[in-house]
Amino acid sequence: MEKDLPNAAAVATTPAPPLNIHGDTNPFTLTFHDLSVHVPRVSECLPCCTFRNIKNLGAEYFGMYVTEREAFYTLDRVSGCVKSGETLLVLGKSGSGKSTLLRALCGRLNETDELFGTVALNGIPIGKSHQAWRRMCSYVSADDGTHSPVLTVGETFRFAAQCTSDGKTPVAALEARVDWMLDALGLSHVKNTVVGDENLRGVSGGQKRRVTVGEMLLNPHSRIFCLDNITDGLASTDSLSLVQQISGACKKNGLAAIITLLQPSDEIVQLFDKMLVLSSEGQPMYFGPVNRHVLREVFIGSADPKEEDTGSIADLVLNQPVSNESLGFPDSKEQTVPVTFSGSTLHRDLLQEIDDIRSMYPSVHEREAALDAILPRTKYSNSYWHQLQIIASRRKKLIMRNSMTYARIIIAIIFGTIVGSLFSALNNDTIGALGKTGYIFLSSFLVLMLSAAVTIPDGFRQRITLFKHRNAEFYSGRIAYIVQWALDMPLSIIEATLIASISYWWVDMTPGANHFLLFLFTLIGLECVGQAFARVLCALSRTQVSANVASSLFILLFATVGGFMPTYDAITWVLRWLSWLTPVSYAFEAMMINQFEGQTFYGVVIVNPNVGSTSIGTVQGTKYLQAQSLPRSQWTTNHGIMVFDCIMLFIFAFVLDVIGMFFQEKTRSWYFNQIRRPRSKVHRAALVTPSDPEAQSLNTYQGGHSIDSLSVKNLCYSVNIEKNSPWKPRRATLQSLCGPLLTCLAGKEAESKEATGEDPGISAELSLLNNITARFRKGRMCALMGQSGAGKTTLLDVIAGYKTGGKITGDIMIDGQPKLDATWKVISAYAEQQDILNPYMSVRETIEFTAACRLPNSSDRKAIIDNVMELMDLLPFANMIVGREKEGEGLPKHARKRLTIANQLVVQPKILFLDEPTSGLGVNAAALVMRAVRRSTDALDLITLVTIHQPSRKMFESFDDLLLLAKGGRVSYCGELGKNSKTLLDYFANLSGKEPPSNVNPADFVLGILDDGSPDNVVSLFQECILSRDIVDHIESDINSAEGKEPLIIHGNSRTFFLELTLLFKRQFLVQWRNPSYSFMRMTVSAGACVILGLLFFNIESNVQGAVFSIASLFFMTFILVIPMQSAVIPLIEDRSVLYREAVSGTYSRLAYGLGQLLADIPFHAINTLIMYGIIYYMVGFRAGAHYVGYFIFVLFLANWSIMSMGQLYALCTPNEETANGLAGLSVILSVCLMGFLITSSAMPDGWAWAYQVNLFRYILQGLVTNELSGQTYRLDIGHLIPEMNTTMSSISLNENNMLGNVFDDRKSNFKAIGFVHGDIPVGGNYSAQAARLVGVTLDLDGENVGDDFNSLISCLVENECLVEPVSTNFINCTSDFSSVCANEFDQIISNLEDGKMKVAECFGGDNSYDGATTVLERDLEHHHKVASCMMRRLLPIGGSRHVLRGFRELMKIIMFIQDIIENGIDIPGDAILFYFGWSEFDADTLSFSAPWKWYYCVTAVVVFLLSMELIKLVAVQCIVWTKR
Using CA atoms, how far apart are residues 688 and 691, in angstroms rounded to an integer? Predict the structure, then answer.
């Protein structure tokens, strides 16, 4: 529970600080004369925007267009003067330029904004951006989300004190300064509590606001403080105390403060010395002392009666229309007051004072020296070395307390285990070499993607804090960047070491410490590149979504041109140069050379039924690298290239870090000063629903029921809490689940007992509301107020039925009858504090949708909608898109508030609940909202309950009643206010014995009495007074009157499910069409990635290499679909709160929402499918034919749908965006590993078979590949696949005398030895299998004991006429299967070949093997005869010379046949290639391959996955609960 700030009395007695916090006490004067800030038009603000030349980009969004904002002056000739010891209050309406003025004064304007006029210190002009001036003039923004959530309040203050000290200040002095500031701001009790954020429970909102202020107040070099909306979210008493502290510090230490406030009370305003009031156009309306008489003369005029000035000072100067366009007041004082002030004595005196100060300007030559004497003399308070030390200390805490640090280690172990086990069954043969190539590529891709993925979220979390510190000149941005790089490096090394150590040896890569270390060194380099690349994206990207999408897209580009597939030589010349700019290509090249250089592995693969898979023949690793186009350029030795590639990775990282460091500073210049984007509008509402011609009039469709009162009697609410358990995360995230572990490792408490208000002896049930009895009447507005933590919002939630947990007792009654849930949803409406609106609908469309869902057809919807919009003053905004508030888009905040309320009023409720409707609004905007609520209450005769925080006097007196709660949820007052709040003031005056001052704000008066006195005494006195007894009597009277009556039952709109579904489909379609991150980004990313793939695999050839490239292009195309999946996560997570609000209020059913979203997605899946098909299908040159094109489009459509559905499923089932993206990335990486492309299913260990079978991506890829390859033939050019042999051989022929002639002839073509054949070749499988066997028999025989086995084979072949024409057919028939006549003899030869004892090649190549360096042609004739003799001895069968001649002749024909295959190639069926990947089957009866699974297997599997995910999504929608509850 939040501890209150010290009250006024306590502030007066606060002891002086034990040290001089602000050392320089010399007086100074800050002046600004004719200050104007010119904001250029939108197109001029975005010179680097890709789409700046596309006029009205939003015109394509279903009638939506973007109104370009022209250039304007946000400040217009503003002048003022502030001296040391003074405080200046700046007031103005929303958009009047208050924050711009503060940034202009302290040198923090946007670089694109033009500053005119003069800002001078002691008469010396200061430039637009002066570093020393920024150190002297601190700026506190209105944003409290700039802190590191895992640091404690004390650590946050300590770091600020260290950064602003001189590096020589003793530690004890720094701690004393920090402790004094904590005590002054009332934060001592939460010193050891983490600041927290939406995912980590920390200090309260009010405490966080004080942390933001105190962090900048700790700077001893700051003499001037520009504080923006520092009391927002604080109770009135806390706001008063905070301003008192600042005002007192300024007077005591000779400082100056310029403060903007939203809704200041007169007590707060009187604490200021001067006031500046700005008009909505940025013109000065007043500058002078805080004097009510003077203000009345300027704003009302001396001739006007004083009765017009009955409110607060803020009401006096600001209670006017927001703009002429909004409410249409042509004679608004906005136009007359600036003119009046410019001609007043105040303005003339101000200009004269500025002129007098200017006359004391030093000469031009002396100004710089004079300014240097005033401003701090060094760029930073600390030396660079001391900065490095304190930043490093802070960074270590952030790393140790970040759950992602430990998650990265766990992920590295998991992926190392997965990848290692997945590739663990590879053999030392061609198939194993291909598998290890896939492992190398996957390791490169995986490390790069993981390092970038984990760095981007952390970078976005830290950059806002970094920018705040840099704007305050706490330290150098370069030092911070270096520290981040240096401290992230150990984690990168650990991560890479874990992945490499686990997987490298498991996969059985090349042994040796040198090989492993180079592999590890390469992974570390990739880690550095990935993190540096992510830091660049964090510096350049506006949002994390765009950074994630850009990261995935670029990493995909890196992977495709990295040299794996396609190889470097196969990359089209248009993109080949990218290979030299891609870190993946250097890493892949280095690791491939490291693995295969100097290695030898088996080539031809033969499947034998007795011994299984057998490999014969060898392939040199160098030749294999050459087949993979590696190295890309042989400019030095392979070892030199390998070392160079590793060094290049770190050069890439260094260059990227330099770029990131540069753009980080550039981004800082605009990050905090984002100009409101152009407002989008629609030509007309797209959700118009016709009304019934016989529609009823307003407010009569509920059957004429009238509700007179709403009562609560003895209402109690309690929640169960765990004893002695202060750690209470608000969401189930990884951060929160690991919270206790992290805080233990960090050596700190998660949250102090004082911060939570928990006592070790607290009971297990905490009471939040205690015996509340109250009665609310129709046509009246009741303000619900109370102390901090009194349970105002809790009471509103309990009455409205929004509390889903805890224990509720007591009675809630409507006209004395218990409320019924069905009736309650019809008659009540609840407007949340947060403006939960769909950002892509217009104002009218938002209201029309609610009306269509909740109003019956018999009502006149158009009249109701128009009436509500008029009541809430929304007609000027009717066609404006709501926009995302966080991004500065669309409606102003006051219009959002009114739209939130109008969206509830349109259902014509009887009871209206409003939770903090004026939160975050200025005085004028808040008054505008409450004026609209007042008109609605009167017009619709509503019972209105409003929780409110800091109402002005006029706003407070617009209420009729007040329900005041004390701490513990107890009633301290409930009754009428009376005219001018007289009834209320008299009651509390009698209670306290104090007379209220004249013109006092009644709200501040009663809250002050409640805070100063004893809450228990106030509560007990009210229970005994006549007001309390009257409430009880009226409730009893209502109960007695309701006895015997039928329960009040009011039926709402009896709409059909089909109508709900239709409305939701229309809305979801509009929303998605208008959402650039969902539709435009998705389609452009898909189109761009497909163009890149199309260029990479452009018009592939119809050969085996082309078939493999086809599979690769489809593999990468499937991965493209993953990139837009991330863009589907964010909108759905943002829409969950809208779903909860609308579903709870009965707008529609959750099932209709889920189905409507499902149907609305289908057109976008279809559009994206057609875009991808139109680009990649014809660029790559996929298969022609309507059947194949139709199947491709259908499967691609299912893939788009299923993968986007997977992203949406994560968004629905996880608590936040970070968790959803993390799970999505994890599943995608696993799916890529198990798709069957990087490693075939036959090469996977048996333990991974289940994962392969349940992989959605596998079925998508298999279906698309089968559609492309099945039934086609691909040319296998063996001569280009195998290493070239030095031995030459002619086309062998027999002369007419059946003698061997012209055996060796150097004039003939080259003969090449087969090195390997792709694929597992089955026994008797097909033509190519037997050819491969015969090649192995012919070229790999060796030894002296060949006679028996080989002669037996030749004899069998000859005797059974297996070597007669056609030789190939007869040979295959004789040896193809177990029943063949020569199968046993042939298999015996094969079994002997395993031992490597027989090689016919020696007969052809002499003493050297077939890959020797000496050719036969270099031998003499005698050696030729020896060769022939050797062949005769080996080929001599048992049976005589006739068989010898015949057999030898036929054998030569077979050799000629093999030579023809080598030189001319053979046709390989596409189904045989599919068989290699495990995507086709072999039919032993027909000796053929077939792949019949693409329809009933692949498509069915994808459909089953899709339906399962959609069903789970529908279930998840039913379980969504808004996290506030």
Answer: 9
Contact 670, 40 (CB under 8 A): no
In angstroms, rounded to a whole number, what is the distance separating the alpha carbons of residues 1109 and 579? 17
pLDDT of residue 387: 92
Residue 570: name the closest of 156, 1004, 1110 by CA: 1110
First-last CA distance in the chain: 18
Same domain, 355 and 230: yes
What are 350-364's pLDDT values in tens digits?
999 988 888 877 776
Closest CA to 1156 of 1029, 1237, 1068, 1223: 1068
Number of domains in the chain: 5
Cross-strand bridge partners of residue 811: 713
Cβ neighbour number for residue 428 with a 10 Å cutoff: 14
Q: What domain range includes position 333?
A: 30-140+224-374
Residues 1066, 1037: one domain? Answer: no
* 474 shares its domain with 575: yes
- Does 232 fall in a domain? yes
Beta bridge partners of 119: 32, 126
Are 910 and 939 in a shared domain? yes
Most confident of 628-637, 645-654, 996-1005: 645-654
Q: Of 455, 429, 582, which Cα lies nearest the Cα of 528? A: 455
The pTM (predicted TM-score) of the whole model is: 0.75
Cα–Cα nearest to 795, from 580, 963, 950: 963
Lowest-confidence segment of 982-986, 1127-1131, 1363-1367 by average pLDDT: 1363-1367
pLDDT digits (tens, 9 = 90+) for 821-834: 778 888 888 888 87
CATH number for the domain that contains residue 935: 3.40.50.300
Taking residues 897-926, what's their average pLDDT? 85
Residues paired with residue 1483 on neighbouring β-strands, in sequence order: 1488
C-alpha to C-alpha distance for 190 and 487, rounded to whole angstroms:
29
Tokens linked to 429: 């043969």
Q: What sign has the CA pseudo-torsion 1361, 1362, 1365, 1370? A: positive
pLDDT (tens digit per residue) in 679-691: 566 655 555 555 5
Task: Give Cα separations from 904 to 814, 856, 1057 (angstroms).
Answer: 19, 15, 22
Q: Identify the CA nearest to 256 among candidates 153, 368, 137, 170.
A: 137
Amino acid at 670: W
- The verdict on 351 and 417 lying in the same domain is no
Are 1272 and 1288 in a shared domain?
no
Phi-psi domain of 89 (left: phi exceeds 0; alpha: psi -120 through 50; beta: other):
beta
Domain-embedded: residue 2: no
What is the pLDDT averaged over residues 197-205? Answer: 75
Q: Are strands 87-92 and 114-121 parallel, antiparallel or unpaired?
A: unpaired
Q: Which of 45-49, 451-455, 760-764, 775-779 comes out lowest in average pLDDT?
A: 45-49
Q: What are the pLDDT digits (tens) for 1082-1130?
A: 888 889 889 989 998 888 888 888 888 999 999 999 888 888 776 667 6
Question: Long-range contacts made by residues 556-561, C-beta under 8 angstroms, separation at least 24?
Answer: 556/1089, 556/1116, 556/1119, 556/1120, 556/1123, 557/582, 557/1089, 557/1092, 558/448, 558/582, 558/583, 558/584, 558/585, 559/441, 559/444, 559/445, 559/584, 559/1116, 560/1092, 560/1093, 560/1096, 560/1116, 561/585, 561/1096
Residues 187/207, Cβ–Cβ less than 8 Å: yes
Q: Is the peptide bond before 1015 cis (omega within 30 degrees of 0)?
A: no
Residue 906 and residue 870: Cα distance in Å, rounded?
Answer: 11
Please tell me whether residue 1100 adopts helix, strand or coil conformation.
coil
Same structural domain for residues 1354 and 1437?
yes
Instruction: Report CA-CA distances (Å) from 1463 to 603, 777, 899, 1460, 1466.
Output: 19, 99, 78, 5, 9
Spatial distance between the Cα atoms of 652 and 645, rounded to a whole number of angstroms: 10
Between 155 and 1331, residue with greater pLDDT:
155
Q: Contact at 8 Å (CB) between 37 and 244?
A: no
- The mean pLDDT of the chain is 77
Q: Are residues 664 and 715 in the same domain?
A: no
